[in-house]
Amino acid sequence: MNFNLSEEQLMIQQAARDFAQAELLPGVIERDNAQKFPHEQVKKMGELGFLGMMVDPKYGGAGMDSISYVLAIEEIAKVDASAAVVMSVNNSLVCAGLEKYCNEEQKMKYLKPLASGEVIGAFALSEPEAGSDATSQQTTAVDKGDHYILNGTKNWITNGGNATYYIVIAQTDPEKKHKGINAFIVEKGWAGFEIGPKEDKLGIRGSDTHSLLFTDVKVPKENRIGEDGFGFNFAMAVLNGGRIGIASQALGIASGAYELALKYAKTRKAFRTEIINHQAIAFKLADMATSIMAARMLCYKAAVEKDEGKDISEIGAMAKLYSSQVAMDTTIEAVQIHGGYGYVKEYHVERMMRDAKITQIYEGTSEIQRIVISRSIAKNS
Fold first, then answer.
1. Pairing of β 147-158 and β 209-220
2. I need a labelling partner for 22 at 20 to 30 A (CA). Which of 101, 130, 161, 237 fits?
3. Which is nearest to 326 in space by CA: 245, 266, 256, 374?
4. Is 363 part of the annotated catalytic residue set?
5. CATH of the domain at 71
6. What is the CATH classification number for the domain harbouring 139?
7. What's the number of domains the chain is made of?
């Protein structure tokens, strides 16, 4: 067991840190206020290889390991959680699923531009009536021989307005229940495919969240991923890996808030001394540092086991459950340490507190993570 990062991993961490400070920090408050998608910054992330980090270079990716991915997302999320979720979705939900389960033709057509950052993708599973209960898909894909006809609505879709390619989960045979679900690659601009209004969100306001509306959309047979009925297993497998991305995003939000709180506590004076010298503040920072380190270890373990080809459903769920709680707790305390300054936008921590909440909700709520963990320990004990 080696806890030392390799030279390459340290270089990636530093590159992500430099990018976050130079490119993301200057406009992050304005993007949050205006709900502005970070177009220029996402383009540069693509050029740096951050949008297809773990994809084989022959498909336009950077061919890195999962630890490098965790390191990069943490550094990006320390500064801008909205940019981090764009990165997480494109890497974990879109590119990872396409690389693992698509045929060669699909990979060359769709994975290559997504992994190189030429375009971005979206993953459309959630519906108005099917959030945590992903088996209750109302979106239908009727088999018409050489194509499917897609009808339905998806919501809460990250990158919804700016993606070019969408992975859409739909029910083909309701009698087979979850075994009748398929996954399809759908292109923006196809007849009958409309993008609904942008959601006005509490946090991650720079990210792009929309409903997607499908009315008699013709999807070629060759755009189905895997065998007929593979869609539900595909979605669950992709979400298992995706949890590492969101856990790392939560870790980044927490560590970013902690770093700002620590810096503030070392300079802000009250009662004739820096507030870090008051035990009430020092102990808050000690608890934050400990929780963040524990969350980081869970993320690293999940990443290492993913690269070893192990089943990471349990450890991935643990990493997301714990890291998201740490993000929430840490950001609340970071605001508290800043006092009145923490409540205004200029000092960043109030945004981080708003951004943290979603990490307990999307890509499987904390309650769903507990279901996954409890079933796993019941089965394996």
1. antiparallel
2. 161
3. 256
4. yes
5. 1.10.540.10
6. 2.40.110.10
7. 3
Residue 132: per-residue pLDDT: 86
Q: In angstroms, how far is the first alpha carbon of the chain from the final one?
A: 24
Q: What's the domain range around 209? A: 122-232
- What is the pLDDT confidence band of residue 131, given thresholds at 50, 70 and 90? confident
Q: Give the global pTM.
A: 0.97
Dihedral of alpha carbons 269, 293, 74, 126, sign: negative
Q: Which two tokens stand for residue 119?
A: 């375009």
> Are 33 and 52 contained in the same domain?
yes
Domain final position from 232, 250, 265: 232
Q: Are 241 and 92 in contact (CB under 8 A)?
A: yes
Please report which helix (H) or strand (E) contains residue 304, including its range: helix 279-307
pLDDT band at 241 (very low <50, low <70, confident <90, very high): confident
- 106 and 136 assigned to the same domain: no
- Where among 96, 119, 142 does a domain terminate? 119
Q: CB-based contacts of 246: which residues, under 8 Å, 6+ apart? A: 85, 88, 92, 320, 323, 324, 359, 362, 363
User: Cα separation of 71 and 178, whole Å?
Assistant: 35
185 pairs with which residues across the strands? 167
Name the average pLDDT for the chain: 97
Whether the pLDDT of residue 381 is over 80: the answer is no
From the list 74, 99, 127, 363, the catalytic residue is: 363
> Which phi and psi (to 5°) does residue 144 adopt?
-115, 25
Say whether pLDDT at 92 is over 80.
yes
Q: To which residue do tokens 């669950």 refer?
A: 236
Q: In this structure, are 100 and 132 located in the same domain?
A: no
Express as a percent the part of the chain with pLDDT over 70: 100
If asked whether residues 104 and 130 sit together in one domain, one would say no
Residues 245 and 372 in one domain: yes
For residue range 212-232, list pLDDT tens digits in order: 999 999 999 999 999 999 999
